[in-house]
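Help wanted!
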Amino acid sequence: MLVFVAKRLGSLAVVLFFLTLLVFTLGKVADSDPVRTYVGVNASAEAVEAAREELGLDNPIPVQFGSFVAGAVQGDFGISLSSKRPIADELSTRLPATLELAGWALALTVVIGVSLASLYSRPGRFGAFMRFVFFSAASAPSFLIAMLSVLVFYKWLDGALPAAGRSSYGPYEDATGFYVLDGILHGSPTYTWDAIQHLLLPALAAAVGSGVALARVLADGISSSLGSPWARTARALGEREGTVLRRHALRNASSPALSLLAVQAGFMVSSLVVVEQVFSWNGLGSYLSGAIGVGDFPAIAAVCLILGAVYVILNTLVDVALAAVDPRVRLS
Amino acid sequence: MLYSPRRTLKRLERPTPDRPDGAWSALGMGEKLSLIAVALTVLIAVVGPVLMPYSAIIPSGEQLLPPLSPGHLLGTDVLGMDMATRLVAGMQRSLFAAVVVTLIAAAIGTLIGVVAGFRGGWIDSALMRFTDLFLAFPAMIIAMAIAAAIGQSLGSAMIGIIVVWWPLYARLVRGEVRRVAALPHVQAARVAGVRGWKLLWRHVVPAVTPTVVVTASLDIGAVVMTLAALSFIGLGTPAPAPELGRMASDGMKYFLNAWWVAVLPSLAIGLLAFVFNYAGDALRVMLRRTGV
Amino acid sequence: MAEPTVLTVSDLTVTYRGRGRVVTAVQDVSLSIAAGRCLGLVGESGSGKSTIGAAVQGIIAADGSAHATGRIAIAGRDLTPITDPAWAQVRGRDVTSVFQDPMRSLDPTMTIGRMLNRYTGSAEASVAALERVQIRRAGEVLKKYPHQLSGGMRQRVMIALALAPQPRLLVADEPTTALDVSVQAEVLSVLREAIEGAGCAVLFVTHDLGVARHMCDDIAVMKDGLVVETGPAGDVIARPEDAYTQRLMASRITLTTDRMRPVGAPEPAVVASMRDVLSEQGRPDEGVADAWGAGDLEWERFMGRTAAVGAASGLTDVRLVEHVTRPSLAVNEVDKTYWSRVKGRKVGNHVLTNVSFEIGYREAVALVGESGSGKSTLLRIAAGIEKPDTGSVDSQGVAGEGTQVIFQDAGASLTPWRTVEELLRERIEHTTTGAGMSRAQMRALALSTLELVGLDESVLAARPTQLSGGQQQRVAIARAVVVPPSVLLCDEPTSALDVSVACSVLNLINLLRHSLGISVMFVTHDLAAARLIADRVLVMTGGEIVETVGAERLAQDITTDYGRRLVDAVLA
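Answered by r_m:
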């Protein structure tokens, strides 16, 4: 097991290195000129030269990459071309916002997946209808779900749930940036409840698609487990169907579901970016789409690196978890 | 008499034709419907834009007319362009882009997978190391970064998706090729003297093709949605191009007053994705049942 | 004083409904077993024996796809087949079972201990249960996962699991079919002792008459859903009364079966091929079937000439010859090691160590060994599918062209989407004989070979998926001999087949071998089948040939310990 973990950590480092290299390379080949974006189209030649030096673009490319990596490791992603402030400062409040939303969305995904799995493989008309509904949900882009939920809960139900922002009150001083946690830490039920209300719709919009996908994999896994020879053995030993499901099938279906969850986490990133935009959620996603709008590639690169690192680390954790659940993974 | 004469015996042992009525009759009701829906959607997307009375990029009426207005069945947008026309044009664009992306990604992946799986040795390990690296990357983020680096257009979004999509096919095909190449029938063909590309083409590839086709058809829906998401966050061709994701995000500005400008393009994307997801799944079930 | 009856099946009929067809799997079957007795249910595949096994455990799914009439009584409790709610109380208490597939019949995510403790109640009881099935170091085995155990160990665990609830009836459904022969013998004796200790009644489902005789007190023979004969094991085997049972008995191959003549009862397909061979050789004979039935048909009668190719002599034409001195296959000092990584370290598995042997012209040699002995690797090397690490293989005999293989699973060895004609043509194209032949000539050659194995031209355009299992088997043989090879390599061609089909395949191979004058290398785990085909038997274990024995008096002449173990494992 230790060997397995060490190996996974090694490949984690390799992937992170290549991820950084890729993002850096993309920045070099990007079709906009960073200096011009920085100083504006009408700047003088001296101003351009000064900016080139300020941004470190006069160094040879390997040196630039070296300082890019060194900076990224210390959490320094350079200067935003549009706001001219350090990117790290701008992201410091936005990262917790996105992580909080992502955490809730992932939790909702699991809730949706597990609770709908049993509806998926029902026989007959009802099952066919449920599959139709699930396919619809899985095919709906997350911004459609976001829009519809805003229409229903905000417009038609007259503001039953808030449809924009993270809180009605604003952040506490020297807080963690996770609003629900902040509310609890400061002992304010009103603040906490308000933050949860703001979280509900965006998290739901980001979770529906992956939740339905999870339900499907769980249902497939369970039904193939129930048809397997060892399930027959359990039945022949007198186990009731419920026991076969609980003791054997769920356990065997959980490892494909876990790997799917890791994949879904990757796709959820795009939903998050989209959903943040719809709900004016002040996270990395809305920052990213803003940066895309003005062609601020260093900012884009920073967000991609951070989200990418979170994803890769998450995947490693899931792999380790899989090895713990299923002995065959560990030994192969 | 214990045994029949030779002729009788041989007549008794004639091969039975399989599936005399063709594959269509093997389908269930839902599967037939889904294939018809795909045909209809493709038809609308292909010939629809020609039939529409307005231009997709020129204002043709009052601004922000709600759906069911006279002359504008689905209303108009903030510039007064006909929504129905723009939706049909947008579906054509999405569908075309998704099919192209899927085809190119599948072609690259299949090529790499076949070469890796069939040649084996260091070529295999080198290609698969490369593929695994791409698979370990967060796909959506890389696609965004690539598209952002190339510039805001549908083409750059397509390139971004192709770059992250082919490794899935490479892995899949490589695994299938290796599995099939170890099957007795391939070994038997090898023993009979068939070698090299002939062996690959005649005895291995036909077994891999259905898997690739089914995966590709299942992927079209997913690619439609991914392209739309990239377009929505600003990585598509800007207005007035009739691009559904972009139309939806631009429409968000007037969302609470004129919901249809944002919701209708989103629904169109959902419809495309749904039709292809459902039909792809039907195809998968069908192939599994007929045992190809 | 007679023991009480544990299982009574009366007038059981089971039908399956699916895809618009109704299939009767079991028809009007009545059986009974007393406590402490073992009833063998013997039949070929599709005879309905496994359906009965499933019915008396109540594990046929009650989802409407199966329908049953009749009664089943277990330990005095009367039950309606399939639908009775009381099955839930019977199953796992009064009836338990051991299944065929020990690889997959245990939950892969659970340790043996976790599984077993649930039924024994405590770890100590589990250890005792494992010791009852003669597992040493039971404490360690309890901590292991199923995939860490060998097939034989897994099946012992299955037996321990099945006996843990102290059932009144044990159903054993082909419990040793998937195991190696010597492991089979061990597991059977373990099972036998464990059953005697437990005193329960046993329903033993098997296709293997030898196993049934070894295990059972009584035997019921099934065919097409009907029980055709019942009686004490000794009587049924020694004096079968029903015609089907008689044929089944005749198809049995033992270490004393006559090697000079066709085995089993005369069979139409093989008889047809024999007539073809004789008329091709210019001496037609309509009386072969009668001669076979009367026992005076010898293989010698079909002896024909060999197609010689100048591959080794340097000539390019193809001629028919009577005799050749050059060996057909020479294997010299072959070594083979497979490398794999275990915990990051390279580990070598020496599959073959310094293996040398020759197969002469018209000679048949059998390689006998269990799984892991290296015999299959040797066959693959001889066939040119794999390369040896060191050493050489020479299959450029003067007689015939190269090597051809008949694979274990004939159906799977035919590419499903190619037609039979294309498959045969592929072999013809790549030989000296076929070089320069036109399409029509190749077609004619393919057709005459298909007729030789009892098929006709309707098969030419068919794809393998359209053919029955028997037809596929014969197409595979036809492809191997359409251009006679120097050596015909047979990879366990009979091990997956029912006895009667296996018989006809063995007869066909013997017929082709004599009439085409080819050499045969026959790889098998079954000494009896090996002896029937081969003149010499090479015994392999651990990647080495440990003994070479003449086939005729195999059982007497074999000397090594390992060889003796194989002989003892032949249950006749």
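OP: Thanks! One thing I noticed: The domain at 92-295 of chain A is CATH 1.10.3720.10 (MetI-like fold).
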